[in-house]
Amino acid sequence: MTAITTAGTPGINRFTRSQLLRTAALFATDPDLERLVDLDSRERTWHRLDATDHLEIWLIGWPVGTSTGWHDHLESEGAFLTVKGTLAEHSWSQRTVHERLLTAGEGRTFGSHHVHDVHNLGDSPALSVHVYSPALRGMTRYALLDGALHATGVEKAGEQW
Question: Is 130 exposed, middle or buried (0-12, 13-18, 19+ CB in 10 A)?
């Protein structure tokens, strides 16, 4: 896989979205993934699988009923793939919430500043692989109030997770 240089941003390397999804699919084939997170926890658990300045890969364990809350990934583009279970992604576009269900083996890509909330709405724990380029520097958190999203703060990588 070769990183591409983002037009108009000298020195910033990114992977294409299709490369990010293929990377998530490759990591999802590891039979030992479930050992890296606690699927019996009441809260989501995560484990960073790999990271460079240009690429970051996370594994997330999703107990039933857990969610991320509304957020974006700042300047990072990304992809995620459901390894086990079913995840529901709610995304925000043009003042409308869109829902997409992703069962085991299904994934999706997204651009920078994509605002979404991912849930395990199933009846069993779920597992997913998430890939970001460039490496995740933080996330903007949002609240949905009166039919609009409002930024509530920014979590910086390394400080809160």
Answer: buried
